[in-house]
Specification:
This is Putative antitoxin VapB18. The chain has 69 residues and is an all-alpha fold. Helix content is 70%, strand content 0%. The protein has one domain (9-68).
Length: 69
């Protein structure tokens, strides 16, 4: 079963950078299965105050650096 999701352009570009010959489903599955990523995604989709948003940005930056290494 296929689903359509809407993301901003900047979010779309990130997996596009590493996509290569793989599908977006494969990329997302790989990202979620990495240790800690599912928790990060769950946190990111919740409601946060300004301080929590800044902390999340820092955590996401670390995750992004791990993906690029």
């Amino acid at each position: 079963m296929e689903k359509t999701i809407t993301v901003s352009d900047d979010v779309y570009r990130e997996p596009l950078k590493i996509k290569s010959h793989r599908s977006f489903s494969e990329i997302l599955r790989e990202m979620i299965k990495r240790e800690g990523n599912l928790k990060t995604l769950e946190i990111g989709f919740g409601t946060r105050d300004s301080r929590e948003k800044e902390m999340l940005k820092e955590e996401l930056k670390k995750v992004e650096e791990e993906f690029q290494s």
